[in-house]
């Protein structure tokens, strides 16, 4: 069986379509500041790969043999916890980098699944090391990429143990709206077919708790469901989060 939108099962392992390429997004993330002529010369180090929706790009435990720069589509990063239970860690959008831990890990620490049909620029471990050691500007760009990811992780950890689950859910929905949202007449549309179970795994609670909290958010006018997607009122969510943070620290909202 393969991954399907909103439901994680065993990932399919279809071989991706491949062709040599380097995208503008890769230029922006990794090759920013490199001359046009040098970027053209370096393009042979990258390989365009296409993965159909629902298939695994790599699975936890696979050899960490390449870094991936997301060109189009959405990628879900997952890990196992509490036995066989899967946790949704991140939903990556075009321009994001994943598989970047290959410099410190011999095998993949997470599973990456194509949430939609995706296209990536991949660079092998050997070529990536060659690129970093021969081009200091590329090394600095990569450090910036890692720093941005580290900031997100540290913020998530800081919030995880010091807030209530409904507060964490509000912040996750607001972050998804900021990262993926599209303007709509009723607010900001989050074009991700997320299940209650996936939201629960993102904040460390149960699906039933998330369902109850979403009902509460709807009652407060913070969000609405439009087909498979959520639409949120960003301003109301920001005000709600601020009020709950004051309440958490013992101050009147």
Question: What's the layout of helices and strands?
Answer:
Elements: E1 17-20, H1 24-29, H2 36-42, E2 46-51, E3 56-58, E4 66-72, E5 75-81, E6 85-92, E7 97-98, E8 111-114, E9 118-124, H3 125-134, H4 136-160, H5 165-180, E10 182-184, E11 187-190, H6 196-203, H7 207-219, E12 223-226, E13 229-232, H8 234-248
Antiparallel strand pairs: 1-2, 2-9, 3-8, 4-7, 4-9, 5-6, 5-8, 10-11, 11-13, 12-13
Helix pairs in contact: 3-4, 5-6, 5-8, 6-7
Describe this structure in words.
There is one protein chain. This protein is of the alpha+beta class and 253 residues long. The protein has two domains: 17-145, Jelly Rolls (Sandwich), CATH 2.60.120.10; 160-248, Arc Repressor Mutant, subunit A (Orthogonal Bundle). The chain is built from eight helices and 13 strands. It has a five-stranded antiparallel sheet with strand order 1-2-9-4-7. Strand 5 (75-81) and strand 6 form a beta hairpin. Helix 6 packs across helix 7. The model is unreliable at 1-10 (pLDDT under 50).
